[in-house]
Amino acid sequence: MSGAGGLHRLVLASGNPGKLKEYQVLASGHALKLQLMPGFAAIPEFPENAPTFAENAAGKALYYSKHSLDPVFAAYAVDRQMGERLGDFTIRAGFVAATGNGRDFHANIGAPRAAE
Question: What residue numbers bound the domain in which 46 lies?
């Protein structure tokens, strides 16, 4: 999700501007552009009824990620160039970083974190 200036765009599954500000403080010094998920208020809330925090967190991530692709497809429908494939568009539009070599796929996402 690298766009202009090498920033990685990160969409927060939230409509709370205060939460965005908190995450922006935490992300300062990193190549991240944080934004609230467009249309978040219109998405039905995820029911947190799993027995553990981890299961609820994983469920929420999958649930809201399905909604986060909608802006990509909407932009593709409007802004693609004649004959442009979706993968090429997502790179040109800055949704993802270009990868010239499969071994470099993770080069723009940072080092893996150790388990805490």
Answer: 4-100
Contact 14, 38 (CB under 8 A): no
The answer to the question of residue 96 being in a domain is: yes
- Beta-strand ranges (E) seen in 18-112 are 32-36
Query: Using an 8 Å Cβ cutoff, are 14 and 37 in contact?
Result: yes
Per-residue pLDDT tens listing for the chain (116 residues):
444 456 777 888 888 999 999 999 999 988 888 888 878 888 899 999 999 999 998 888 888 877 777 778 878 888 889 999 988 888 888 877 777 777 766 666 544 434 33
Residue 70 lies inside a defined structural domain of this protein? yes
Cβ-count burial 86-106 (b if 16+ within 10 Å, e if not):
eeebbeeebbbbeeeeeeeee
Instruction: Answer whether 59's CB lies under 8 Å from 37's CB.
Output: no
